[in-house]
Write a structure and sequence with these properties.
The chain has a single domain, classed as 3-Layer(aba) Sandwich (Rossmann fold). Helix content is about 35%, strand content about 20%. The chain is built from twelve helices and eight strands. It has helices spanning about 5-20, 45-50, 55-60, 65-70, 85-95, 110-120, 160-170, 190-195, 195-200, 210-220, 235-240, 245-250, and strands at about 75-80, 100-105, 125-130, 145-150, 170-185, 205, 220-230, 260-265. Strands 1, 2, 3, 4, 5, 6, 7 and 8 form an eight-stranded mixed beta sheet that branches. The longest helix has 17 residues, at about 5-20.
Length: about 280
């Protein structure tokens, strides 16, 4: 099965669990009994989650909180790549206000259905959820001020295409503000090959300097990669358990090599590069 189909299946199942009263495990809140994912838990504070539908919080599968650091301004147009249940879109919509707009892009029908229901419950009129792939963004060039994303770009098998598309739809002077998992140093091939770990935001992660190189190749400047949570051996044990991997042998090899990071970049206000001013 292709990576894209595996991702779609997993996130569709997560949405269905939330719709039936469960959690995406762990979601954005505190870790739940029997859920020990060190990446997706405890990302948002109560002041943020308290103003959103519970289903939007439970459906969160991110690795950070891009809305907390994106410095959104009233009237701006925001695009969330891989918007899932809509938590970051709804938070962004509140910050850009009625004069602004927040788009969410997702390829999974179940997540889009959940996100639109969360939008209805939140009464968010300046929100629109789009169906599509982050490698082919269904928006015109130079149409958004800010692009956010939460642990999604690492799931793509064609990250260069994703970043080129992000650059294309961003207005000159626009900003990229994403949370993603990055690696620091060599990663065992066994981890890279494991599809379940790819879907879990691990095996598809880029090395931090490679991420910066790809952003620069797409045309971005002012690139910053700031680790926000470095995973320990015990974190590694948590996400490797149950994956058919010798945890005791593998965990020390990934100690400190995976991290959630906040990634910033900007599109030049004027330039002659392909896609810059289309």
């Amino acid at each position: 099965m292709e990576i894209k189909e595996v991702v779609k299946e997993k996130y569709g199942q997560a949405a269905l669990r939330v719709n039936s009263g469960g959690s995406s495990c762990c979601g954005a809140g505190a870790a739940l009994d029997g859920c020990c994912d060190p990446i997706t838990s405890n990302l948002y504070d109560a002041s943020q989650t308290g103003v959103l539908p519970e289903e939007a919080v439970l459906a969160s599968l991110g690795c950070g909180n891009p809305t907390a650091l994106a410095e959104l301004r009233p009237g701006e147009i925001v695009l969330d790549l891989g918007s899932g249940g809509g938590i970051d879109v709804l938070l962004s919509a509140r910050r850009v206000g009625p004069a602004g707009k927040a788009y969410g892009l997702d390829m999974t029908d179940e997540m889009l259905s959940l996100a639109r229901e969360n939008q209805r419950r939140a009464g968010a009129e300046n929100v629109e959820f789009l169906k599509g792939e982050i490698e082919h963004i269904p928006l015109p060039a130079a149409s958004v001020d800010v692009i956010i994303s939460n642990c999604v770009i690492n799931l793509s098998a064609d990250k260069d295409r994703v970043l080129r598309e992000a650059f294309r739809v961003m207005k000159p002077g626009g900003r990229l503000a994403i949370s993603d998992v990055v690696t620091r140093g060599a990663i065992p091939d066994e981890v890279r090959r494991n599809m379940l770990l790819w879907v879990g935001c691990i095996a598809g992660a880029l090395q931090d300097d490679e991420y910066a190189q790809k952003l620069a190749a797409a045309g971005f400047k002012d690139i910053e990669i700031e680790p926000t949570r470095v995973y320990s051996v015990e974190d590694a044990r948590a996400f490797l358990t149950g994956q058919g991997i010798d945890v005791d042998a593998m965990a020390p090899q990934v100690e400190g090599k995976f991290a959630s990071a906040f990634i910033r970049a900007t599109k030049p206000a004027s330039c002659c590069a392909p896609g810059c001013c289309e």
